[in-house]
Fold:
Amino acid sequence: MQGPAIFSRAAQPVPKVRLAATRFAPRQKKLLQGIFSLLSSNLERRLEPALAEIEKSWFHDTDQARSNQVQQGLMQGVSRLRERRGAFATEFLAQLESSLARLSDTTPETQAPGAAPAHGRVELSLVETGAMDEAVVLNEIASRSEIRSSLPLFMLGQRFGVIAGKPAFEVEKLPIGPHRICMALRDATDVFEFTVTAQQDFYRQIDRHLMPVFAATYEEINAWLVREHLLPNLAYAPLRRQGTLEAKVAANAAAAPKPEQEQAKPPSNVGPHGAAARPRMPRGLPSANGGAASWMPTESAEPDNGEGRQDAELFDMLRQLLASRRQILGRLKPDAAGKARSANANAVPVMLPQIQKSLSALQTHSSHLRMVDGKPRLRQISDLRQDLLAQFRHDLPPGADPVLPEEHGDTLDLVGMLFDQIAQEPQLSNAANTLLAKLQVPMLRVALDDRSFFTERNHPARQLLNAVADASFYWTSDDEQDRELIDKMGSIVDRLSGEYDGNPAVFSQLMGDLSRHLGTQQRKAEVSERRHVEAARGREKLEIAKLKAQEAILGQIAGRKLPRFLQSLLEQTWADVLALALLRGGEDSPTFKQYLSLSARLIDSAAAKAGGKPTLISADEASRMRADMLAALGQIGYQGDEADDLAGKLLASATPGEDAEREDPASRTELAMKLKHRARLGQAQEGAQAVEIKEVATPLNQEETAWAERIRMLPFGTWFDFTLNQQGAVARRRLSWFSTVTGKCLFVNHRGQRACDVTINWLARELARGNVKLVQAERGSIVDRAWGAIVKALKVFSGGKGESAPLATAS
Structure:
């Protein structure tokens, strides 16, 4: 079923099903409930901000409506969106849960009960234009989302096939795929009872503000299913000539973590008769050579000894690259090579048990610091090699020269290159480098015992190494608030040095401890970030209210001759009164109308008095107005004599008596100075907004305009690097929220704390100048990227081409 047809509504609604009420096997139910939990948590976190953005957009559009009818329609939509958003969220999640619960149901959701089968006679009928337009819009949204997430959806299709015990799912039939998401959106939107125009605009707004969230959600669900051992080795690799280094390394780097496989389950690409079913190629992803990519699941059916052979082959490839490197360096330094050959005459090879024994002693007693020219520096793997050889010489006869067997020497070199490469990450702090230096000996001992350390991404030691490096990427010991995490990682590294005795289980235990602590820190950061986002939204609402209040006051003053002091009071203080009334009750609230009427009365009477005509406000009315003013001024922080003096100045120009321009200039000047230094509504005291960056109001050039448009399309959570000073110090900040109405952007740090407030225009200018840089999403972990850089560097010594490299053997 293709195109808009899949979004046609059923004659009768399909009843919803709860996962708890299904009769799936325990393993199936656990996986489906876990998927729904991840999906619902991401939606609950992002749905409310998306609906708030839609409400603000519609509220802003009401001022630019082409007619009263359009304006009333928008206001009605805003009202229903505000009142029924809770019911919409509940229904949306219930529809998605029902889609998962009906995983084994073969009846299409759009087919009414009792309808004719697809191969039978079908009665054609006219379709309402609105329904057709709805289907077209939803199909466009689903197609864009499918293109955006084609690879994760392909992976999910394979894994859902395993869960359901069926062939791989097509994207249209994937229970949480974009087409089913749009079906759930269609049914949940009915609670609003929108007009056709409002409904279609709502769909488009959802496509902009919410649908991009699913791209990251699909990745997260795939990662969770890998941790649940569901097709852990499933990967996509474009077809290449077999035997090349690039194909072997790329296939290994692309592979998901490899825990114990579920041997009882068949691969997801096996059809009902045992033949491999070729899945439909996802849309939007070209192959490496520019043509159509070949998509095949690479889940291996080999037993563990097959994986061991692969580990051995990849390790041998790395060793051959090292051999090429040594050969070339030997040619460049013939004297050093000659000395090495002469030393081999007295060489005594050191066996692995002796190496491990010496490393065990270094692990507990050796310092991670070295003194060089009287200054301390962090230990390197080359220092460990020298310490080892010094220990071995102590146990050998005089003149004997201890040497490491070539395989173990290569292991030392590779581990050294790994740590050197990780240390080149620009964001690593001093605390991180210290922790990594302490990890050198345990990691070296693991690598000597288990060559899969180099080839398996889910190796416990690699996971711990990556977690420490990754967690240290932003957290620094210079920040007092980061000390808790730094101390926790330090204690874990110290425990590893004291507890590791060759049993790799200690890595898993310590990794679990660190993961729990990191999870707590992450939740704290999310709570802090959510609080700052809500505050930013509140500031935006206040700013919009202040702009509307200012417009209302200026509209009343337009063309009127008023005393300057009165006009200043109205445009500042009374505008704040109107803004607060707008914020609390909206433009239709009695309070806002009352205060707007009071200012209109003041302006009319003051204009009459300034023109030499009788004032319009009697003494009794002035008394009532004064009481209303005192109550209104009290709400924005004016109390006692200050409020009484201000109310008197407002009434002076509009009631009989001396002209406000001439009476008591000293008191008027004093009041003006007080108002100037007093924080207005929603404005912090002087010095409290140091994080808000001011910008110069100049038009954007062509490049800056392009950046501004790109910023508006970025998802929340995008990271930027800010250059802090002329020395090049950089701080990484997360774009937590921005408003398309006011153009304000909120950036937070890694702890979810507010880092700075800027505008989209300021950010666009700084991006164009290079003072701010958009951080591109890194592929793989820090350790994976380090291995990729090492292989690339080593290939230079083998000619730079995998086909001609010595290790280019058949797969």
Q: What stands out?
A: The radius of gyration is 35 Å. The first strand starts at residue 347 and ends at 349. Residues 106-129, 237-305, 685-690, 801-811 have pLDDT under 50 and may be disordered. DSSP finds 25 helices and nine strands in the chain.
